[in-house]
Amino acid sequence: MTQVTIGDRIRRSWAITVKDMKIYYMRPPALMFGILFPVALFFTFTVGRNLSPDRLIPVLSAQTVFWSASTIGPVAIPMERRLRTFERFLSAPISLIAVLWGKMMAGFIFGAGITTLATVIGILWGNQTVSNPAALVLGIGLSSMVYSAMGILFASIPTGSPGEVIVPLNFVRIPLMFVSGMFIPVENMPAAGQIVAALSPLTHTIGLLNLGTGSPSVFGFAANIGALLVWMLVFLYVGQLFHKMIMRRE
Amino acid sequence: MTNTNAIEAHGLTKFYGDFLAVDHISFEVEQGEIFGFLGPNGAGKSTTIRMLTGVSTPTEGTAKIMGFDILKHSVEAKSVMGIVPDISNIYTELSAWENLIFTGKLYGVSKDRREKKAEELLQLFDLYDRWDEKTETFSRGMRRRVCIAMALISDSKVLYLDEPTSGLDVKSVRSIRRLIRELNEDGLTVFLTTHNIEEASQMCDRIAIINRGRIAEIDTPERIRTAMKSNQAVEIAFKEQTKGTREMLEKLSSVTEVQKRGDKLRLITNDSAQTLREILQAIDENGLVPVSLNTLGASMEDAFLWLTGAEMESEIIHRRNRRR
Ligand SMILES: Nc1ncnc2c1ncn2[C@@H]1O[C@H](COP(=O)(O)OP(=O)(O)OP(=O)(O)O)[C@@H](O)[C@H]1O
Ligand SMILES: [Mg+2]
After folding, report:
1. Which partner from A3, A78, B83, B131 sits 20 to 30 angstroms from A64, CA to CA?
2. CB-ligand 1 contact for B86 (6 Å cutoff)
3. B64 or A47, higher pLDDT
């Protein structure tokens, strides 16, 4: 019996990522919630408000990464439940966490890819200087992981239809946009609002993106990175627990 | 290693809420066996397979595959098995080739090996001409073959097949059965479920008869049939049949039970020759008009019905009555 090494696990998990990219990136709900929706929201909230590029670009990038990265899991997993291909992962020689990691990477690449594109367009169009490239890259990269994991967590809802995951997810996604300093700066919020903002991962995404374009981050670079990392692990771990719970019921 | 059982189930139990779908099932399958799980719809066959393959967590009990506990050493246990579920869960967005290659990757089969094996399997399953086509367009039989091929790409030691041939035409059924037998001759252990008695008795070395989540009997097809020898039957239909007719037949000394089968009456007996004599005499005495008379040897069907209980029997009668 040959041992299954860490390298093997990573390769198997990566195979899932590649397959998900092939199958789900071009699905209508992925395109709608991953691309159309953030672009539409961006214009709805920014047109006519006369904001400068250094205020606009973080909103554009945060909006895009938030919606796009969290969409792939909720599209892919319910469709796989319906066709019962999700079972293939459960009976394959790979742990559940590695399966979910592979799925998370598919959302990560989708989110990071689209957001990078949107951000580069924004920067070129606004003629914006990037004062902290590391913060910008981490803001996009780490956030893609976090929101992808959030999507995977919601996709533990045992249903065969993406809509039944996306609707509850929107009940979280939409309110989060309003408590995270995207439209009202965190400094101007009442104390209670600031506490909620500190807990929202989206606040920390915007913090990093602000640093990237030369604005301050309310909670600071280290807190932003720390909070995003913690959220990623929490989403992934709780997601795994929920998926296990479903297996016990099914 | 050769003494290790391919599958060992100990008290496997599954509750769905309050509903007990599988009730403390235990059995062993030796390496190289074809083991059949035979039972009616809803008996718990698929649920058992799902627990044995790690898809569903048992409420109680354990299972070992080639000596590896399915919960504690799940990666090792899952490395040695191939699974064909009751519906062909292939990726319809991908081609047959891509389906096989992806499965190979998931099971850690090296690149050279999985490509060689995928090609072999496509040839073997008569899919080679359309290897590059999306499987969306494939017929049910073709999808089934892709699904079985996927279960074989990783050199599995134990193959689970959940109703491998149901819904397929005669030609596909034959070719799939032949393939399973050939694979088994090469040493593969096969666990298959079916509600087709013929399939179970043709294919399997041993059969477990399962009903309502419990195993009623585990034995060879031959021995199950022999056990049923005492349950021969005579079937008779009359031009006119009253309640009195049935009572009269029930009184015959060699008859142990009378069952209604559509417009026929089936008399269960230990001695069909004696029953025939008694029937002919009764016909004469009562002036009845028989329209058909048959003797039936103990078939797997009888064995099955007898072992799974009278419950089934009354269900059949009930359903037939409703259809009228
Ligand atoms: N996910 C589920 N939730 C609730 N009940 C279930 C679930 N899956 C199966 N059951 C019930 O468990 C029982 C056993 O089902 P199972 O699918 O194992 O039967 P089966 O022997 O495979 O039948 P068939 O021949 O129809 O495939 C059935 O009564 C079924 O309704
Ligand atoms: Mg079934």
Report:
1. A78
2. yes
3. B64
